[in-house]
Amino acid sequence: MKNICLLVLILGLIKSQAQITFNNTYSIENNSAINSEIGWEVLVDEEGYTIVTGQFCSNNGPYCTGIIKTDFEGEVIWQNVFPYPLELRAGGKFIKTPDGGYAIAGDQLIGNEEYRFFLLRLDSTGDSLWIKFYGDTIKEFPRNVVLAPDNGFIIHGDGGSGFADKAIVRTDSTGTMLWEKNLGLTSGNVYRNEFGNLVLLPDKSMALAYRASFTTLGFPDSAALTKLSSTGEVLWTKYYYQMSVLCSPTLRLLPNGNFLMSGCKEENGFDYYATFLLLDPDGNIIKEKNRLALVTGGIADVSLTSNGDILACGRNDSILLAENLPYGSAAWIMRLDSDLNILWDRNYVSLKHGDGATLYSIKEAPDGGIITTGGTILDTLENGGFDPNLWLVKLGGDGCWQPGCGDEGFIFLAVDEKEGLDIGRQVYFTMNPNPVSKNLNIRLMNAAFSQQPILKLYNAAGALLRSETIERGILDVTWDMSAYSPGFYFLTYEKNGLVVQSEKLVVFRE
Predict the structure, then answer these.
(1) Quick one: 391 and 464 in the same domain?
(2) pLDDT-derived band at 36, boundaries 50, 70, 90
(3) Is the pTM here over 0.90, yes or no?
(4) Torsion of CA 37, 209, 276, 337, to 10 degrees
(5) Which domain range does residue 325 map to?
(6) Fewest beta carbons within 10 Å, which of 94, 260, 311, 344?
(7) Quick one: 306 and 396 in the same domain?
(8) Mean pLDDT over each residue of the chain, to the nearest integer
(9) Minimal CA–CA distance to 246: which of 275, 281, 278?
(10) Following DSSP, what letter does each residue of 220-247 receive, concatenated?
(11) What CA–CA distance (Å, rounded) separates 50 from 42?
């Protein structure tokens, strides 16, 4: 009885250590399943989390836009989808409106590789109120939508053929267009302007960050910042990096009136940096922070926490991952303080999904934790393509799935199916085969990055049968199980005196 209680304590300890964290994937259905759902943006309110999702309705390519609402534990409250034949492609950003509803900006395919903006208004339960379309000229890939002081909307995206310019549409609160502009940023040796986002300033002027491409510089790309009047007139433009910029710049307005711009840059054709710039209101650099060998896949989003810290997310395609891990890419999160000092950065690998996991949006949760969304590759389609599903991950404020992950740079998440929903948990090891008759192969996911974990084997009665301390840097261990009697066992992973994972193991005789 005493040993059985010990085993129950071991299993219960793992559960009791965790705050509300989850690692869920969702497939939205409403008469028409979306075959590729990517979480583009997550919003936080008093009820839970709302995510805009979608991309393709089916394998042949028509676009869909979806929205899903969950509570703070990741349980679905409601969901909706706006399917073909409208060909609505979510632009990736949406906002909550003063009446408790939502506004989603995106684009609609109207011709051969030609698109126009749309603005979709929803009520508080995700049902559509109206949709409006904009653009006598080509406008595509809306990068964000902003609520104006009069409760109208400002939509920013790419304009002109081949991403030649930036476009802005200004509407009233009913979606009626007040004005539209292509900003005329293509001039001289600047031939292409794309990506980025727009922020509204207190005096109703605007600031726009984006990527500009040049024809004459030794390095073709630059991060750009343009100041605009309240009616979209260009006041000034400044360029930064003057080198190959690998990902879209993001721009945030800080409480003190300064700007935070983030992006990625490449040097020497090999060294990749995540870059953060503090800029004054005139666009002058106050401070710069570069982080080497991260996020070659891009910084997708940046947000501010209640204490002024900075959260950034995206994907890490670093070659360093391929050298040490079974996958060559991972989702990625970094936290910095307001002076751009890095507090921590971590990579997240989903063992079910493998390569392709990306985080596109990140926010602070009401409990001080982190909520982030993106997409993961769940299945390979018959035509050889991939089928991403919406990925929603809740973490502690330190980026840990379980308390006390310390300096771990890699968090590995397993996904188990429960009642049709993919439920996640952090793992520190995997084992195979199971059931096992002789050699048990154990892959130690974090042993190379954390201090000497201990593997322990217990029988079904809770008696400790084997204990082995793993030296830092060892990734694989093989145990000979032929001396153990057939039956059930438990293999546990102990770190810093705490059991953080326990798995059932079956031994049999051939």
Answers:
(1) no
(2) low
(3) no
(4) -80
(5) 19-85+296-400
(6) 344
(7) yes
(8) 80
(9) 275
(10) -EEEEEEEE-TT--EEEEEEE--S-EEE
(11) 6
